[in-house]
């Protein structure tokens, strides 16, 4: 069916195209009220719908937002992040144009040019993993960065990322609170492509150990592939340690590695959390809550970050053009964390008592 044009309205009303345009766009003119009523009645009768894009361009608004991502549409976390952004856009009568570049720089550059040419009201640049956006990426000023941050010295881009350092601290604190002192960290592989989040979570882990007066044991910091297999191999290395060095709790870089640790522990006839407690990271759908026992983990706030990015993009909230907004990663408590085995707990209490006595004896009289 052919689209009804403004000329069809003009013919039905018996006026010029210019008159129809002035009336339908509420432009001040000397056109009589009678003629205005006739034009609007004719537009309704012929089924004319003005172009939203054209109307938006005249008002300098297109009611559209561009969202460019490296691989968000092909990952398990995409739904929550997109849902957050979409919910805000929908509530504010905006349409989201999503482009998944597959991490291809040429596709990315083409998408940025195309969306800019479409005069979208705002642009969001999203990454699937917390990372730094290179200064070489030609983004329009004011682009909102989602799950990524600008390179050092680059300004003009509000950004939101998970607070991974505090997330690592929260995971370790959960294990310390349960009474553990031999806490391992199963980390990602040591390589050039190592995620920014890995070092931030490691910093949080070490900071809490130091706060608790627990000596950092490098034997309890092991690396592996970011996968089930990598987690299992890393956990096996920890379980091969002599009993007095073996961890009673393990913090895993992500939930997939935690499932590998489950496999290694169960293969040796050990129980979770009776013999070893486990905590993961991500709260990945269909993984964390489905383990036996269900996995305690740290949730990545994908939905909340998506909402924040869209609200800033649409001017609903202040983002701070030169600030990185770090969003809390909450603890999701399930059944994989408990106290250390009884004999270890007794040793821990003895060490804690000795540590306290040494600290008191070292405190000068006042």
From TrEMBL:
Cited InterPro entries: HTH_LacI, Lambda_DNA-bd_dom_sf, Peripla_BP/Lac1_sug-bd_dom, Peripla_BP_I
Protein name: HTH-type transcriptional repressor CytR
Lineage start: Bacteria, Bacillati, Actinomycetota, Actinomycetes, Micrococcales
Cross-referenced SUPFAM superfamilies: lambda repressor-like DNA-binding domains, Periplasmic binding protein-like I
UniProt domain HTH lacI-type: residue ranges: 4-59
This protein's record includes keyword Manganese: no
Presence of the UniProt keyword Transmembrane helix in the record: no
Chain residue ranges for the region called Disordered: 333-366
Membrane-spanning segments: none
Gene Ontology MF terms: DNA-binding transcription factor activity; transcription cis-regulatory region binding
Keywords: DNA-binding, Repressor, Transcription, Transcription regulation
Listed Basic and acidic residues bias regions: 354-366
Entry superkingdom: Bacteria
Pfam short name (any one): LacI
PANTHER family tied to this protein: HTH-TYPE TRANSCRIPTIONAL REPRESSOR PURR-RELATED, LACI-RELATED TRANSCRIPTIONAL REPRESSOR
């Amino acid at each position: 069916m052919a689209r009804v044009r403004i000329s069809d309205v003009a013919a039905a009303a018996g006026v010029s195209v210019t008159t129809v345009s002035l009336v339908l766009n509420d432009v001040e003119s000397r056109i009589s009220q009678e003629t205005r009523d006739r034009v609007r009645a004719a537009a309704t009768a012929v089924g004319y719908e003005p172009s939203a894009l054209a109307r938006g361009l005249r008002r300098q608004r297109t009611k559209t937002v561009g969202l460019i991502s490296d691989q968000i549409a092909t990952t398990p976390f995409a739904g929550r992040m997109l849902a957050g952004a979409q919910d805000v856009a929908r509530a504010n009568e905006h349409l989201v144009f999503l482009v998944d570049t597959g991490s291809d720089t040429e596709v990315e550059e083409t998408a940025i040019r195309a969306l800019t040419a479409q005069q979208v009201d705002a642009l969001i640049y999203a990454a699937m993993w917390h990372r730094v956006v290179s200064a070489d990426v030609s983004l329009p000023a004011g682009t909102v960065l989602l799950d990524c941050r600008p390179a050092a010295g680059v300004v003009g881009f509000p950004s939101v990322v998970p607070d991974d350092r505090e997330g690592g601290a929260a995971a370790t604190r959960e294990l310390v609170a349960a009474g553990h002192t031999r806490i391992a960290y199963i980390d990602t592989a040591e390589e050039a492509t190592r995620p920014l989040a890995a070092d931030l979570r490691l910093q949080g882990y070490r900071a809490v150990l130091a706060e608790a007066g627990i000596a950092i044991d490098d034997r309890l910091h092991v690396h592996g592939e970011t996968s089930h297999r990598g987690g299992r191999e890393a956990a096996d290395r920890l379980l091969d340690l002599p009993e007095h060095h073996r961890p009673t709790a393990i913090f895993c870089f992500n939930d997939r590695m935690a499932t590998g640790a489950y496999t290694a522990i169960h293969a040796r006839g050990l129980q979770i959390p009776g013999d070893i407690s486990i905590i993961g990271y991500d709260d990945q759908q269909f993984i964390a809550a489905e383990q036996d026992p269900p996995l305690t983990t740290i949730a990545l706030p994908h939905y909340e970050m998506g909402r924040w990015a869209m609200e800033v993009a649409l001017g609903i909230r202040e983002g701070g053009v030169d600030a990185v907004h770090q969003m809390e990663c909450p603890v999701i408590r399930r059944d994989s964390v408990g106290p250390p085995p009884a004999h270890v707990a007794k040793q821990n209490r003895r060490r804690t008592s000795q540590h306290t006595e040494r600290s008191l004896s070292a405190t000068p009289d006042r």
